[in-house]
Amino acid sequence: MSFRIPHLQIGSAEIIALADAEGPFFSPRAEAFPEATATQWAEADRCDPGGVDAEGRWHLQFRAYAVRSDNGLTVVDAGIGPADGPAASWAPVPGSLPASLAAAGIDPAEVDTVVLTHLHTDHVGWAVVTEEAVPSQGGARDGNVSASGRRPYFPNAEYLLQRAEFDALDTINPQLRETLTDPLAAAGRLRLLDGDTPLRAGRVVATPGHTPGHQSVLIAHGHQTALITGDLLVHALQLLHPELAYAHEVDPETARHSRKRMLRREPAGTLHLATPHLTEPFLPV
Ligand SMILES: [Zn+2]
User: Fold this and answer.
1) pLDDT confidence of 223, banded at 50, 70, 90?
2) What is d(CA 101, CA 90) in angstroms, rounded to the nearest whole number?
3) Residue 105 CA, distance from chain mean position
4) Are 29 and 36 in contact (CB under 8 A)?
5) How sure is the predictor about 139, in pLDDT bands with cuts at 50, 70 and 90?
6) Pick from 229, 127, 145, 218: which is nearest to 186 by CA?
7) pLDDT at 265
8) Rounded distance, CA 115 to CA 215, Å?
9) Which of 73, 79, 118, 178 has the smallest C-beta neighbourhood within 10 Å, fewest atoms?
10) Cβ within 8 Å of residue 83, ≥6 positions away
11) β-strand pairing of 72-76 with 113-115
12) In the chain, what percentage of residues exceed pLDDT 70?
């Protein structure tokens, strides 16, 4: 069986795109980007033809990324999750991240770092799983399983979240306390960051606005830079017109500022965008 896994090499780091799902957005796309003009929509559809379906709905990918380097293995975001995951009310669960990881030759147990870009349910789905959805390997209950029967899907990883995001949990989605952050904290796997932070390969960059503590991952070597964006931009519209707000941004002005700052092109180099929701897993800009 051949299963092509998209990847991008930046220096000694290999960035691997991990498909979890795809499907239509839950509301009309004009409501998601109320300021976009007909001309801008037409440009965006030419830029990303896969981002619109035959009925004119916004068609999204849901993907995570892995970064493999000599220093370790990082996963950025955790998709929509299993059938009983927190995104089940709106996203096409179950996702296929476990199969994508296997196809990429990645055992969840070898992942040492998980970066959660933000606390929306389509980015944390596989971070913590229930025993019912994903039984522990070998059936042995390890010390990671919480009283609610939940455990980190990546059992040996440290999960990185911005403190500003954790502090905003009650306004973003209070249910994630029980299903995500409490089990991670109980397993000793949650580490809160204060702004930009070095990783084993690359670094975390604070990109607030979509949510208060949104973060992205930057990997640079020579003139080549990859940015694993999270929801810094969610549609080709925001790549072509970074000033355009997305209706579900908590702070549109701050989001716009983060987007413009990160998308500013360096004249001598290439910036490769690795986005969860656009059709192409890697986009040179
Ligand atoms: Zn998202």
Assistant:
1) very high
2) 23
3) 20
4) no
5) very low
6) 145
7) 67
8) 9
9) 178
10) 93, 94, 133
11) parallel
12) 95
Using the mean position of ligand 1's atoms as its centre, give its distance from the Cα of residue 2 in Å: 29
Q: What does the pLDDT average to over 87-99?
A: 95
- 2: helix, strand or coil: coil
Q: How far is the CA of 238 from the centre of ligand 1 (A)?
A: 14
User: Quick check: 169 and 177 in contact, CB under 8 A?
Assistant: yes
pLDDT for 267 beyond 80: no
Q: How far is the CA of 69 from the centre of ligand 1 (A)?
A: 26
Contact present, 122 and 180 (Cβ < 8 Å): no
Q: How much distance in Å is there from the Cα of 142 to the middle of ligand 1?
A: 31
Distances (CA, A) of 116 to 77, 124, 190: 5, 7, 10
How far apart CA 231 and CA 96 sit, in angstroms, is: 20
CA of 217 to the centre of ligand 1 (A): 15
Distance 1 CA to ligand 1 centre (A): 30
- For tokens 């290439």, name the residue: 270
Tokens standing for residue 128: 């913590």
Confidence at residue 130, expressed as pLDDT on a 0 to 100 scale? 93
10 Å CB burial of residue 178 (0-12, 13-18, 19+) is middle
Q: Which amino acid is at 269?
A: G
**Cβ neighbours around 203 below 10 Å, total:** 14
Contacts of residue 100, Cβ cutoff 8 Å, sequence gap at least 6: 5, 18, 19, 20, 64
Distance in Å, CA 74 to ligand 1 centroid: 19
Across the chain, what does the average pLDDT equal?
94
Going from the Cα of 140 to the center of ligand 1, the distance in angstroms, rounded, reads 34
160-176: pLDDT as tens digits = 999 999 999 999 999 99
3-state secondary structure of 91: coil
